[in-house]
Amino acid sequence: MIGSGIGAPEKYRKVVVEKLGYVTGLQLSLRENLFDAAQNFDDLAKVSSELRLLASCLIKFAKDLRLLSSGPEAGFPYRE
């Protein structure tokens, strides 16, 4: 949830988080300080960074496999 939640009752916030968790299949929780959650996206930036690193490692791995599979009978053609 984004926002301060000042206008929403505590029970409503809990129900919304439970329903979103049920629909998405994720274990969600309500942050203690919603002002901080709306202003600081440090945790999301870290996740984005880790996903970028994972993607680059997987691309390198796929390229290495492609290179290793190249030979006289498969992969890149051999030319002199």
Automatic annotation (TrEMBL):
Pfam families: Lyase_1
PANTHER family, per the entry: ASPARTATE AMMONIA-LYASE
Keywords for this protein: Lyase
Gene3D superfamilies: Fumarase/aspartase (Central domain)
SUPFAM superfamilies (alphabetical): L-aspartase-like (SSF48557)
Protein's UniProt name: Aspartate ammonia-lyase
Claim: Cell inner membrane is one of the keywords in the record: no
InterPro entries: Aspartate_Ammonia-Lyase, Fumarate_lyase_N, L-Aspartase-like
Organism field: Peribacillus huizhouensis
Annotated ranges, domain Fumarate lyase N-terminal: 2-76
Domain of life: Bacteria
